[in-house]
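Tip: read the tokens left to right.
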């Protein structure tokens, strides 16, 4: 069977032939991969900036945003059966006894850094026809979501951020009556976040460098949210134009914007950062003003990565809700469906909002 692998030492990305995988443990299941979503992480890995092969291997199979069908189950698998549609979680726990996060089933909070991530760090991904996976790392998806369920993994990043933000707001000694949310970035994560805010009844604004006439802007307005382009309104003037926000979610990874974003928070507001800027990125900030504001307005800035099982389950619930509220807008997030052999080209030249690789058709 075919797979797409990066060879970091040879700086090479190529299709390879692999033997058909077989069940090893009693709790394993065999998956036929239906679709794999591509994102900026895959682009970074395929340009050899990031990512690492499993130990002892010279290559890493790409792909972490999966949708698959169960073909065969091990003898101790009780929660899944052949024919079930599933999404696989990305991160796997580290082996260390002292890591309470991993031992408690939340490797997304791993404290040792020795976790693995399928398709990213030390474990092969899903850009292949068949995969063997332990049942523990799978989440079942309703069949009615089949054509959009590949969005569950990126959406789980948002549902985790929302869950964390909620617990931060819970510290307030009064009901904050949250109303206004700002999203920085109009990529798939930003647009999914706008959907989540609208679905929760928030007044939502998306701020990005794309023009106010482009596809992402159109999609944002179709949700009933507002779109503001950074080419017309610098972040310093955004509060004047659009008011201040209870919560800001950043999904750009542009360091100067990440640091400037507190300027648009309401007092007691929360800024969630999900973008990953390049390590060498620098930004000029007025540290005195930024830190004064943070203290004098009880603001919280937090980073969030990856997601736990409850966030995946929440993502599935949200996606079901989105498909009732604005199904066409959700479908429009997936702008390309391509076969495996077109992936190298697509990773080199990004197009559309979310590109999805079709590995096999749903039965
Ligand atoms: Zn991704
Ligand atoms: Zn750990």
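Filled-in amino acids:
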């Amino acid at each position: 069977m075919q797979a797409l692998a990066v060879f970091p030492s040879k700086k090479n990305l190529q299709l390879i032939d692999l033997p058909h995988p077989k069940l090893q443990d009693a709790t394993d299941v065999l998956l036929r991969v239906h679709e794999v979503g591509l994102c900026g992480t895959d682009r970074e890995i395929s340009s050899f900036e990031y990512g690492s092969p499993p130990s002892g291997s010279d290559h890493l199979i790409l792909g972490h945003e999966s949708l698959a069908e169960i073909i065969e189950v091990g003898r101790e698998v009780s929660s899944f059966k052949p024919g079930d549609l599933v999404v696989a979680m990305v991160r796997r726990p580290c082996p260390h006894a002292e890591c309470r996060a991993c031992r408690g089933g939340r490797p997304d909070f791993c404290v040792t850094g020795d976790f693995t991530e399928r398709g990213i760090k030390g474990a092969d991904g899903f850009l292949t026809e068949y995969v063997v996976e332990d049942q523990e790392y799978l989440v079942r998806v309703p069949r009615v979501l089949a054509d959009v369920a590949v969005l569950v993994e990126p959406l789980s990043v948002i549902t985790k951020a929302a869950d964390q933000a909620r617990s931060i707001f819970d510290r307030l000694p009064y009901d904050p009556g949250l109303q206004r949310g700002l999203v920085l970035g109009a990529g798939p994560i930003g647009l999914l976040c706008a959907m989540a805010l609208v679905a929760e009844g928030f007044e939502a604004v998306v701020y990005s460098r794309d023009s106010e006439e482009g596809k992402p802007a159109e999609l944002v307005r179709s949700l009933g949210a507002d779109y503001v382009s950074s080419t017309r309104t610098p972040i310093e003037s955004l509060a004047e134009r659009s008011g201040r926000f209870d919560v800001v979610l950043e999904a750009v990874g542009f360091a100067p914007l990440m640091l400037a974003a507190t300027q648009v928070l309401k007092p007691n507001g929360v800024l969630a950062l999900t973008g990953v800027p390049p390590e060498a990125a620098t930004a000029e900030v007025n540290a005195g003003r930024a830190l004064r504001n943070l203290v004098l307005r009880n603001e919280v800035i937090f980073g969030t990565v990856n997601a736990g099982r409850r966030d995946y389950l929440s993502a599935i619930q949200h996606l079901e809700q989105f498909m009732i509220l604005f199904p066409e807008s959700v479908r429009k997030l997936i702008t390309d469906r391509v076969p495996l052999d077109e992936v190298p080209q697509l990773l080199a030249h990004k197009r559309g909002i979310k590109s999805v690789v079709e590995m096999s058709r749903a039965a």
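The longest strand covers residues 28-37. The pocket of zinc ion (ligand 1) is lined by residues 39, 41, 64-65, 154 (CB under 6 Å).
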